[in-house]
Amino acid sequence: MDDQEKWLFKQARALPDGANIVEIGSFKGRSTSCLAFGCRGTRKRVFAVDTFDGNEWDFRDRRFFDEFDRNIRRLGLSKYVQPVVGSSTEIAKSWNKSIHLLFVDGSHRYDDVLADYFGFLPHVAPGGILAFHDVEPSWPEVLRAWDDIIKHELRDVGYWSTLAYGRKPTDGATDFPRLIR
Predict the structure, then answer these.
(1) pLDDT on residue 45
(2) Domains in the chain: ranges and CATH
(3) Predicted TM-score (pTM) of this structure
(4) Are the C-beta atoms of residues 116 and 106 closer than 8 Å to each other?
């Protein structure tokens, strides 16, 4: 397990019992599993949002859901993972649960990163964690979305490996644990 996977596990583990985690872009379930391992023995859930069918610019014409599902079941994590199959922008429109940790690793195009951010932000609880994968020069559009807008709207901003993260601002005290390094 590399550093960013440990970070995801620790953040999920530190959330209050019953917390909701939304992962946008689950692919074959590697990061989903790290988050779900942090939920074991609790009522926390990971909602894995993905089309599971790639897109027109990478992973084209390939379905990943069966492999994702097999990986989650093989690791004994099905109890903690709820796949949500569809476009993240469409799912955000009808989302109705509070989010305690939002992990964005879907499309790496600038407008899509911002659409995921703005689409799910209203559902992130005050003090909730927002984390973004591939915030680095080799993914310039993700880095640009982070630098242009996202990092300026969050509190307690930090970086871990290729992750960038922060908290949704809150007016008062929060029952959320501190971010763990």
Answers:
(1) 96
(2) 3-167 (3.40.50.150)
(3) 0.88
(4) yes
